[in-house]
């Protein structure tokens, strides 16, 4: 298959990223590795951030495919566990791409998709009446804990990494945000969270947009 100039630039940048990290991705180095002139890079990607977005998408392609391949089961908490394991595995196996995605203030498009998948899983837990805290807070806590585990492992020599820590951290955060069953989540905050998740999924036309916004605000207060 003949590669386009854009493909050559992205693959050259991806290889430089793997070998030398983020610092290796100068426009000059990428252009030279792809065998093109620097103006060509800017013409295709607009600027360096455009190139980095393309590289992040390229690197995260297999991860996102894996996320989608997990599918959905009748157990959203189990789905969250499997998603966590896939996320941590990718971060440890592809640290350069992971840091490009999560180690910078700029949020790249591939990360937006990954974040949306996580939020959708957490939303399904809320719909099942098993979420203790608001959806956004739960999603942020899951992500922050997973990222903390990955960064901690990457900063440690391989022989000092305890794989049991991954499972312990996963189960700790799941216990913090979920209940064992919907029957346990009978308090007002959990019911408010479940109702908001249901309304977001099927808003209907009984309430006006302004009324939806007001109800969502009230439910958030109750959830807190």
UniProtKB/TrEMBL annotation:
Per the record, the coiled-coil ranges are: none
The record's InterPro entries line, in alphabetical order, gives: Homeodomain-like_sf (IPR009057), HTH-type_TetR-like_transc_reg (IPR050109), HTH_TetR (IPR001647), Tet_transcr_reg_TetR-rel_C_sf (IPR036271)
- PANTHER family, from UniProt? HTH-TYPE TRANSCRIPTIONAL REGULATOR BETI, HTH-TYPE TRANSCRIPTIONAL REGULATOR RUTR
Protein name in the entry:
TetR family transcriptional regulator
| Keywords recorded for this protein, A-Z | DNA-binding, Transcription, Transcription regulation
> Any idea which residues the entry calls the DNA-binding region?
26-45
PROSITE patterns given for it? HTH_TETR_2
Which Gene3D superfamilies has this protein been placed in? Tetracycline Repressor, domain 2 (1.10.357.10)
Q: Name one GO molecular function term.
A: DNA-binding transcription factor activity
Q: Which domain of life is it from?
A: Bacteria
Q: Which residues form the HTH tetR-type domain?
A: 3-63
């Amino acid at each position: 298959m003949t590669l386009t100039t854009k493909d050559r630039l992205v693959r050259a940048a991806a290889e430089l990223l793997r070998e030398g990290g983020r610092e290796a991705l100068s426009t000059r180095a990428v252009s030279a590795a792809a065998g093109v002139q620097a103006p060509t890079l800017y013409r295709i990607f607009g600027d360096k951030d455009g190139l980095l977005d393309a590289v992040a998408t390229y690197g995260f392609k297999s991860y996102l495919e894996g996320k989608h391949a997990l599918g959905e089961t009748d157990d959203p908490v189990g789905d969250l566990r499997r998603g966590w394991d896939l996320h941590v595995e990718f971060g440890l196996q592809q640290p350069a791409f992971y840091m490009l995605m999560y180690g910078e203030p700029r949020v790249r498009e591939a990360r937006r998709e990954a974040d949306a998948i996580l939020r959708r899983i957490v939303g399904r837990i809320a719909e099942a009446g098993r979420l203790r805290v608001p959806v956004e807070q739960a999603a942020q806590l899951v992500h922050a804990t997973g990222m903390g585990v990955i960064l901690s492992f990457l900063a440690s020599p391989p022989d000092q990494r305890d794989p049991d820590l991954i499972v312990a951290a996963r189960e700790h955060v799941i216990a913090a945000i979920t209940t064992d069953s919907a029957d346990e989540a009978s308090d007002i905050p959990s019911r408010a969270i479940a109702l908001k998740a249901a309304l977001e999924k099927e808003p209907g036309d009984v309430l006006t947009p302004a009324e939806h916004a007001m109800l969502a605000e009230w439910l958030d207060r109750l959830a807190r």
